[in-house]
Amino acid sequence: PRNILERDIKYIEAMGVRIKTGVKFGIDVTLDDLKKEGTAAVIIAIGTYQGLKMGVENEGSTNGYIDCLAFLRDYARGEQVVLGDKVIVVGGGNAAIDAARSALRCGVKEVSILYRRSYQEMPADRNEIEEAQAEGVEINYLSAPVRIIEKGGEVRGLECVKAELGELDESGRRRPVPIAGSEFVVNATSIISAVGQQPDLSWNKEGLAFSVSPKNTLLVDDNCHTNIEGVFAAGDAVNGPTTVVEAMANGKKAASAVDVYLSGKA
Ligand SMILES: Cc1cc2nc3c(=O)[nH]c(=O)nc-3n(C[C@H](O)[C@H](O)[C@H](O)COP(=O)(O)OP(=O)(O)OC[C@H]3O[C@@H](n4cnc5c(N)ncnc54)[C@H](O)[C@@H]3O)c2cc1C
Fold first, then answer.
1. Which of 22, 29, 79, 143 has the maximum number of C-beta atoms within 10 A of its C-beta?
2. pLDDT (tens digit, 0 to 9) for every residue of the chain, 266 residues total?
3. What is the CB neighbour count within 10 angstroms for residue 49?
C-alpha cells in the first residue's frame, strides 16, 4: 500500500539518506560521475526490470501482446490499458498473479493464467494463487505457449501445447516436456507475458564491464563486492527475481560489507 511505502521512505530519509529520483544509473549519472563527486562506495540494487521473452512466433510484433511489467506500471499509474474481454497471462510467479488480478480490475471479463508446470512447482505465493482463483482467475497448468495467433496485427489467441513433467532441471524443478500432438488454441484479445525478468544492464558497456552471470545478473563475491573496486551489488539484480524479504536481507548484508570496506576493518 502506498501509505506504508510513504511511511518507510520518510523513515529512511529521517535517518539521513538523501534520495534523488528520476536519475538512471549508467545513463543520467555514470560511475565516473559518482567517483568524481567523491563517492567512496556504491551499491547497485536495480532489481530486475527487463521482462524475458516467451520465445514464440509473433511475439512483440502483435498489438495486444504486453510485457507484464509494462502493463503493471501503466495500470499503477492509472493509465488506460485496453485489454479487451479475454486475457491470457503466461507465467507462474507473483508477477503473473498480480497481472491477472490487475487485468480483472481493468474490467476484463475472462482472465486465465497459462503455466507450463503443475501447482506444486508454481513459484507464486500459495495465498496469492488462492485469492486470484477466488476472484475468478482460471489457471491452466501443464500448458505452454507455442505461437501467438494474430489477424491484421491484432492478437486473436494463443496456440498452446500440453506438457508433462520430466527430469529435474537446473532450478531443481521437474522440466516441462511438450506432449506431441496435444496442441490446442485459446482465443484471447490480449496476452500478457510474465515468464521472468532480468536486470536491465543496457548501461554495462563502453569500458565499464561489470561481470555478469549467464542469467545476466551482476556477479559479486561473498562480500557483495562486484569485480569493480568500491562497487557492491545486492537484491534481485544479483540473485534474480526473489522476494522482498530476501532482497532486504541481501541489502543489509551489502550495507554491512560497505561499512567494513569503508572503515578498513576487513
Ligand atoms: C509484479 C511483481 C510482483 C511481486 N510480488 C511479490 C510478492 O507478492 N511478494 C514478494 O515478496 N515479492 C514479490 N515480488 C518480488 C519483489 O518485488 C522483489 O524481489 C524485490 O522488490 C527486489 O528488491 P530489489 O531492491 O532488489 O529491487 P526492486 O525492488 O526491483 O528495486 C529496484 C529499483 O531500482 C530502480 N532502477 C532500475 N534500474 C535503474 C537504474 N539504471 N538506475 C537507477 N535506478 C534503477 C527501479 O526503478 C526500482 O525502483 C514481485 C515482483 C514483481 C515484479
1. 143
2. 889 999 999 999 999 999 999 999 999 999 999 999 999 999 999 999 999 999 999 997 789 999 999 999 999 999 989 999 999 999 999 999 999 999 999 999 999 999 999 999 999 999 999 999 999 999 999 999 999 999 999 999 999 999 999 999 988 889 999 999 999 999 999 999 999 999 999 998 765 689 999 999 999 999 999 999 999 999 999 999 999 999 999 999 999 999 999 998 55
3. 13
Q: Which fold has domain 53-195?
A: FAD/NAD(P)-binding domain (3.50.50)
Decide whether 21-48+198-263 matches 53-195 in CATH topology: yes
CATH number for region 21-48+198-263: 3.50.50.60
CA of 166 to the centre of ligand 1 (A): 32
26 Cβ inside 6 Å of ligand 1: yes
User: Rounded to the nearest 10 degrees, what angle do helices 94-105 and 68-76 cross at?
Assistant: 50
| Whether the Cβ atoms of residue 238 and residue 253 lie closer than 8 Å to each other | no
Distance 97 CA to ligand 1 centre (A): 16
Closest CA to 196 of 212, 179, 178, 217: 217
Q: How far apart are CA 95 and CA 125, in angstroms?
A: 10
Distances (CA, A) of 18 to 11, 161, 218, 256: 12, 51, 25, 19
Atom of ligand 1 nearest to the CA of 128: 8
Residue nearest to atom 33 of ligand 1 (CA): 46
Domain spans in the chain, listed from the N-terminal domain onward: 21-48+198-263, 53-195
Beta bridge partners of 233: 44
How many C-beta atoms surround the C-beta of residue 257 within 10 A? 21
